[in-house]
Fold this sequence. Notes:
The chain has helices at 2-40, 99-107, 129-145, 160-171, 186-193, 199-202, 209-212, 233-242, 265-276, and strands at 42-43, 59-64, 70-76, 84-88, 92-93, 111-114, 153-158, 176-180, 220-225, 247-252. By secondary structure, the chain is of the alpha/beta class. The chain folds into two domains: 1-40; 44-276, Alpha/Beta hydrolase fold, catalytic domain (Rossmann fold). The strands form two sheets. It has an eight-stranded mixed β-sheet, with helices on both faces. Strand 7, helix 4 and strand 8 (176-180) form a beta-alpha-beta unit. The radius of gyration is 22 Å and the shape is globular. The relative contact order is 0.12.
Amino acid sequence: MQYKTLKNILVNWLFLPVITSVSGYTAFVGVMHAMQRSFMYHPYPLMTSPAALGMTEMREVRLLSRDSMALISWYAPPKNAKPTVLYCHGNAGNIATRAFKVRPFLQNGYGVLMVGYRGYGSNPGTPSESGLSADAETAFQYLRAQSIPSNHIVIYGESLGSGVAVSLAATHNPGALILEAAFTSAVDVAKTTYWYLPVEQLMKDRFDSIKRIAQVHAPVLMLHGERDGVVPIALGKRLFAAAPSPKEFVTIPGGMHANLHEHGVAQRAIDFIKRHVLLS
């Protein structure tokens, strides 16, 4: 009897912390699974107008998504039949917080359509991979309805928006695809930060660009900061290796995740467009 009691004490002493730790970890995993989209998407709710930011070339357009959601995007038509850039921004902010990134395109006479995602700015809804992809598809079809041919449209994806852009380009034939700080998949990015979680099994929105980019039939330009601490440049290079030709990879020495505009990437993109987008 005393031996059995001692044995029980030893078992409890040795394994109770383990059991408690496992239970705590399991609960933590459950919370992370339930809240994952709040970690993934960081929309800024306050919105302004193009005019308030001095973007006199642009105007608000209200686009109706396939699930009947009215979403505000910003649009400027091209001058002299130049290409139009369809801009898919990253996971934070909204189109107003990215206005400075498209100024160089406007100044060079390019058309620009900044995709207003659901749940961002004043737009209704909540973000998800399927939702953002639907919003980008709506924007693409809007440009086609303006009599802009597919091969005059340059799809530009920034960070998380690169996943949106690759998916869109894989189902259409744009004039070019430009990716800034792109990744192989959102799962691979999550693994670099949440290495202690089973993200492969947990993630709902995967943005699996590495599986889709082979279906892109357009010239591809990839721009990546050498010191990107959010999306390691190695992930960008892996995606680039899977992309069909013609393609170019530009490493920005000293560039980080969110400051590539300071290193002149817009001009790199414009030069690429001039070389590869042939207007008929």
